[in-house]
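Work Package 3 (structural annotation) set out to generate three-dimensional models for the target panel prioritized at the project kickoff. During this period the team completed the workflow that converts sequence records into discrete structure tokens, so that structures can be stored uniformly alongside our sequence database. As a representative example, we reproduce one entry of 921 residues exactly as it appears in the project archive.
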Amino acid sequence: MILARLAPWKTLRGRMLAAAMAVEAIMLTLLVANSVRLLYGSLAEQAKLHAGQVAPVLNAALVAPLAQRDHATLQAVLDESRSTGGILYLAVSDSNGRLVAISGWPRDRALPDPDPALTLDVKDGLARYDVAVPVSLAGQKLGAVQFGLDLAHIVQARRDLLTQGIAIALSELLLSAGLLTLLGLWLTRHLAALARASARVAAGDYSPPRLAEGDDDIGRLGAAFNTMSHAIKERVDQLTVALDEQEALAHDMEQERARLSALLSAMDFGVLFVDGDGRIAYANPAFSCLFAIAGEPVGRRLDETLADAGNAPRDTDHATLSAVDADERREMTLTDGRIVGWHNVPVCNAAGAAIGKLWLCIDVTEPRRAAEQLFLAKEEAEAASRSKTEFLATVSHELRTPMNGVLGNLALLADAPLPAEEKRLADVARHSAEVLLRLLDDILDLSKLDARRIELEEADCALSRLIDGVLEVLRPNATDKGLALSARLMPSVPEVIVTDPTRLRQILLNLVGNAVKFTEDGHIAVRVRRLDRDPDDHAPALNPCGHPESFLLEFEVEDTGIGIATGAVPSLFDRFTQADSSITRRYGGTGLGLAICRDLCLLMGGGIAVDTAPGRGSVFRFTIVARPGDPSALRRVDPGHGMGVGEAARVAALPPLRILAVDDIEVNRDIVRGILERAGHSVALAASGGEAVRMVRERSFDLVLMDIQMPGMDGLTATRRVRGLPDPKGRVPILALTAHASGSSRPECLSAGMNGFVTKPLRPTLLFAEMAAVLAAAPAGTPIPEPAAPEIAMTDTPVTAMSNIPDADLLDVDLLDEEQLSLLLEVLTAEDWSASVAGFTDNGRKTIDGMIAQARAGEPHDRTAHTLKGTSLNLGAAALGRLAKELEQAPSAAVLEQEDRLRGLFDRSLAALRGRKPVNV
């Protein structure tokens, strides 16, 4: 048993013992071998030393007999020397090599050869060392002596040392083996216990007896094993608990799966799960029923299942459904006509990798039909609302026409010599008619706001002048009531802003007018300040693209009037609403003004609010979006733009000038020529930019009126060509004529070398004032015009002019620009007017046909629309010009949608123009 335990292939102790014994044996072997080697070396050196000592003695003893050839003496010396021991034989030879004496070696045998080195090799059964040395006298060789040293004692000494070394080594090995065995048993006494404990743990006993612990390595090993066994026991206990919990969880999951399966089976919409290979992993009964799938679909490919379904989708490629990776919603029509909403949701594992797709299929046929019915109902409601709005617009226009007639006749009647009572009655009737006309204007504005037919214009506007103009209009009423009117602009407000001055004036007139109406004493103040805008706030109207220089202007209109009750403020800006009925009875009004102000403020990118209380007055605050304007674009001008050509020419006081008018439209050229010739100027005409450059090169002009957009060489290019001519031709003043009312082309015109800028349709006052500014010929104190955008949307048509309009055009009194038309009828002769209308008839139809053709072909139509806009506005066809302006930047589809309206407006405008007659018939 002990041997088996000590076997090196069985136990660690055996292996360690075998290794130690092997190391011990190797070391003892090396020790014995080295000792034998050292002994042999020492004895060999002694033998060599002995040989070296014997040679001189023999030489001294043999030299005399050998010299005398005394062979007997030689033999006696040899025998004597051999008898002393340690020498096996001696032999002497003379100088001729002849043996003369020998002792201890047979004479009949040849002497052995001398050994070159000392060895223990056996020779003739003996270990000897053969040495030959010469015998000489005074340097003369007399012969030689050879002897053999006995090495038997060296061999015996080596043999004894080897025997004793081996015995000692074996004894030491046995002793070491015993000691190592005992030491191993003592050192590894705990390993057996560790092995037994490990075997018990391996057998499933996770609570083995504790091992002995201590400070040595074995003790620490026992402590580590005890800790490990304790940790294993705790871990096994935890795993046991976890296993129990997992089994309980598996049981709960099975129940939840059963509930989920029951829930999915009870759903009335299809639920489908497809794995990563495109095969169906789950499909509830509603899915199979919806698509009329026969058999169990689980395990089959989705595309094949839908292709074989009895109610398969007829507008969907089945093969592409499984390829969809993203969250997708789509609709498909089944064979039976039902519409199914299909929602694809990718399913991912915890690592984010896609493992399949979840599909939800819902029959949306009935909701879709309901939505279509709701959409139709909405369309019908909107159509009814549009009909109502159009009805209000039509009625208001129809009422404006007789009201204009009433006002005109009452004005004539007021100027007639009437008795005092009749004059008072006429004034009352005129005042009532004006109130009614303002009411009609409010209704017309509301109808346009509802129909979104109000378009904002952008123009440079001197804000202080605009506010002063509003206050001047209302100052008489305020003075009659003893009210003080004031206005204050904060220093941060720019001198000139870009906005829609007409709509801003309308808001201020409403608010300041209300303040005057509802204030009995005290003051009314208008304040304006600039606010910083949120950079992410884009105004929807004036600043749709988020102009980088845009800002908010806040206006305050403060009064000391009657104030408004807190409960009435929320509905104050609703239509046909006032604070209470007593206000209507006492002050009059319909409650439309504030509603219009709110809509206009929203349209201009701002809002409106009020801070008020009964008895302490009101502060109305509203904001609009604006941006800094160009002060150099403003000129002071008489507010009335409607003065005649002769009066405007007298105000400008220009000398007779040689003027070149350049425009590619013949009607526009005739209009410019008529205005300028009526003012006493000499006019030459050019139809293109190239012709204008040639005429400037060949003739002398005081001024050039240059259209901007012309086919071939445009006005900007022509101006640059003119500026390239030698002086003085290259320095002729050039005034830009453009239909861009926003002023956005001014920097481009000035950079091209132009000196001024006038918008079309032309107003004589503005044109002559800009000419005077360019020529620097305006006398001191002459009002300088403000080149603002033409206001053609809300002009009143004179009664005398209305009598010449056909009945069909009474439905749209904004069809013509009466101010521009009056100007043309004043400056053109009957022949020129007929030629202008004929040219408009021919060119207008061609322009419209070309624009429609370009839109159908998908080609740019903006230049054609711009041409139609300029021609229409110059001839006074305001509605057609506004529509052409809308279509100038509109997509081709919008042009095609407006084709019928475009042609209808053209025909109606043409009929209205043909019904007008020039003054100079």
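The CA atoms of residues 736 and 757 lie 5 Å apart.
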